[in-house]
């Protein structure tokens, strides 16, 4: 009985330590503009919208992204227009997701490009809910115009806001 209680307490402590380290890594994942600008490719300019396949009435996508990951509204992620797939390293099932710098309304964020889609005309990227809230906290805009998206070279970026 004592062993089971000790194991349960140990498990709880490990879970707490992991959640604290994940929270810290997300906060420390803020990149400087100079580093991101140096690593960025040529910008694509267009409109961005939000997608969430789990919200009622949404016809876009499904629960799994093009990379094979499950859609997660709480991470920094996005879907790029299908005909831009090659420019962003060929997002495809089973391949490592690619990364991009998204700039709009005076803010910058690094997102994981893990999905593609036949977005509506004029739109170049669909942001997941967390990323869209970064640019539009109330989600009232629906579409953000003049968004600049630049592919980032390399596979090991930490998604999140750029300071």
TrEMBL record:
Pfam families referenced in this protein's UniProt entry, alphabetically: DPBB_1
InterPro entries noted in UniProt: RlpA-like_DPBB, RlpA-like_sf
Name of the protein in its database record: RlpA-like protein double-psi beta-barrel domain-containing protein
Keyword Isomerase: no
Gene3D superfamilies reported for this sequence: RlpA-like domain
Limits of the RlpA-like protein double-psi beta-barrel domain: 45-144
Top-rank taxon, per record: Bacteria
Gene source species: Bradyrhizobium niftali
Signal peptide: 1-23
Keyword rRNA processing assigned: no
Keywords attached to this entry: Signal
């Amino acid at each position: 009985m004592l062993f089971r209680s000790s194991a349960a307490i140990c498990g709880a402590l490990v879970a707490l330590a992991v959640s604290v380290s994940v929270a810290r890594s997300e906060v420390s994942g803020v990149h400087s503009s100079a580093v991101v600008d140096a690593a960025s490719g040529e910008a694509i300019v267009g409109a961005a919208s939000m997608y969430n396949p789990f919200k009622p009435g949404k016809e876009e996508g499904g629960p799994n992204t093009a990379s094979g990951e499950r859609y997660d509204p709480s991470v920094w992620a996005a879907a790029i227009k299908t005909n831009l797939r090659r420019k962003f390293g060929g997002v495809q099932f089973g391949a490592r997701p690619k990364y991009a710098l998204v700039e709009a309304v005076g803010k910058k964020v690094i997102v994981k490009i893990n999905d593609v889609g036949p977005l509506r005309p004029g739109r170049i990227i669909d942001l997941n809910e967390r990323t869209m809230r970064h640019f539009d906290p109330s989600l009232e805009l629906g579409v953000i115009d003049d968004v600049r998206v630049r592919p980032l070279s390399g596979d090991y970026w930490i998604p999140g806001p750029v300071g």
